[in-house]
Amino acid sequence: MIDKKVDRLEQDYYDCETIIKEYSKSFYYAFSQLPRHDANAVYAIYAFCRKADDSVDKADNIQEKKVQLRKLEKEVSAFLDGIPQDTPMWRALDDVKQRYKINADMLKVQLEGQRMDVDFKQPADIEELIEYCKYVAGSVGCLLLPILSDNIDNQRYIEAEKLGVAMQITNILRDVGEDCSNLNRIYLPVSLMKDSKYTKQDLEQGIINEAFINVWETLAETAENLYDDFVEELKYYKVEARLPLLISLNVYKELLNEVRNHQYDCFSKKHAVTKARKLYLKKVSKKYIQQHFKG
C-alpha cells in the first residue's frame, strides 16, 4: 500500500526545493550536494526565509508590509505551539522540527529582522549593521546548524551566526543600487559614508568613485574575515556537510570578486557567479576538504 502521507511530504519538500532553485542558485548549487534528507531540511528552512523576505519586500506599501508580517508571525506562533498551517512549507518544516533539534525560536528572530526592514533606519555604524545582519541572516545559520552538525553548543551557534552575517553583508554589497532605488533602503553605515565623504545623493546617482570603493571594501573586508574564520569551524560539522558548506562559503565570497571584476558597478548590473566558476570553486573546495580532513 502506498503511504499517501509520505507521498505528500515528498511533494512538500519538492515545492520547497523549487523555491530555492528559483531564488538562490548559489545556495542550491552548494546544498544539493547534501544527503537527500538533510538537503530537504535546508530547502524547507530556505522556503520560510524566502516567504519572510517576500512578505516585506513584495508588499505594495508600509501598511501591507505590516499586515503580511503580522500574518506570518501568527503562523510562526501556531507552529511553535504545535499547530502548523496545512501548507507545503509548514508541513515540511514540521517534519524538520521532528527530525532535528532546531531552535525554532530562530523563526521569530528572522521575523524581527524583517520588522527592521519595515521600520527601516540606515545603520549608524558597522556594529549596528552587523546587529541587523544577525537577525535576518545569523538566524538562518542558527537554524541550519542542527541539520548540518552534531556538535551543537553555544559557541557553535555564535560561529554559525557569524557566517550568516558575512553572507548578508555580501548580499548588501551586491545589491547596493537595487536596495536604494527599488526599496529606498541604504544599508551602508552612516559613519562609514561620512568618513569616506560619500553622500546619499552620490549613492542615489549611482556614483562609483574612490569614496564609494572605500566604503564598499571596508564592508567587504569585514565579510571576508568572517568567511576565513569560519573555515576553521568545518571540523565541527558532519563529514557530508563540510563540502557543501565550503562550496557555499566560497561561492558567496566569490560574489565580492565579481563586483570587483566589474569595477564595483552595483547599480546597473546584478552580479552572479558563473557556472564555470562555481565548478572551479567546487573543485577547490573538494581539494581543501581532502587535504585537511583525511579519513
Automatic annotation (TrEMBL):
Keywords: Carotenoid biosynthesis, Transferase. InterPro entries: Isoprenoid_synthase_dom_sf, Squ/phyt_synthse, Squalene/phytoene_synthase_CS, Trans_IPPS_bact-type, Trans_IPPS_HH. PROSITE patterns: SQUALEN_PHYTOEN_SYN_2. Pathway: Carotenoid biosynthesis; staphyloxanthin biosynthesis; staphyloxanthin from farnesyl diphosphate: step 1/5. The keyword Coiled coil does not apply. Its EC number is 2.5.1.96. Signal peptide: none annotated. It comes from the Bacteria. Belongs to the phytoene/squalene synthase family. CrtM subfamily. Involved in the biosynthesis of the yellow-orange carotenoid staphyloxanthin, which plays a role in the virulence via its protective function against oxidative stress. Catalyzes the head-to-head condensation of two molecules of farnesyl diphosphate (FPP) into the colorless C(30) carotenoid 4,4'-diapophytoene (dehydrosqualene). This is 4,4'-diapophytoene synthase. It comes from Corticicoccus populi.
